[in-house]
Amino acid sequence: MSVWPGFPPAGMTVMLIGILVAETLLAVALRNHRRISYVLTYLIALFVFAFHVWYFLDQRALHKYPSEFSHISYFIFSVCVIVGGRKMQSFASFCGMVTGVGFIIGGCFSPASMLTDAENGATLVISVMRHEILWLGGLLLFLNVGRFEIKDIWIPFVGIAGIVVYAVLMYNGIIYPDFAKPQGMVIAKIVYGTILGYVTGGVVPTWLRAVSIVLVLGMVIAAMFGFYIGNKKLNQIRDVRNARIGKPRDDFELGLFPLAIYLLKRAGVFFAKYKSMRAEETVNCEKIKE
Asked: Contact at 8 Å (CB) between 218 and 226?
């Protein structure tokens, strides 16, 4: 039964796409405002982290744990942004964008199931917003903030591999053996190639499972390279425009790691000045004695 009786599935599709378009337009409107985009992304990360720490702690009594790519992406995105560091921004951005657009595509293909599977209207709204806000955060990093180098593409590859290993261990009960619904893990169905069961409506042949795995792997690799190449092109266009109008490059950074680097540098400057002052005092004392 639908959590919103009388609400048409088509209306769900329109809502999902409408939020996506609005967030995309906001990110584009901020394309020349890197610092504002960065601060907004940081606030999103803080909110996402705080909410999902509370959420999964609350759900632990029901034997529910972070089990899907989107669940893990909440923490990857928020932790990477909060800690800071340019190399990790790419992984945060990629996970955020994939989570957001994946949810929207799934919702557009099956909006009716979203209306019937949700526990109530409030949980449906929360589900929509928590996924779509990752799209905004990931897009702001990709479009306005980050400078991603193709040589760092190994980072998301290692990260995705880690997520797959985590999902397999969880699916087989090696970690979180009391997990309530391992058979419902979508990421496990993708990894094992049984995701096409939603289409075939039955058992998926071994050859079709193999084809499914290869296709998904190819799509992930293509998406990663396209992601890095696209970001590089955007930054090249931005740099040319800024050079033409005489605007300096903005290297403003937020996060615990940049803060630690800044404090260490300040401490180094302080101790260097202190050492210089002590040396000068020693020289002056020697001169007085003479």
From this structure: no
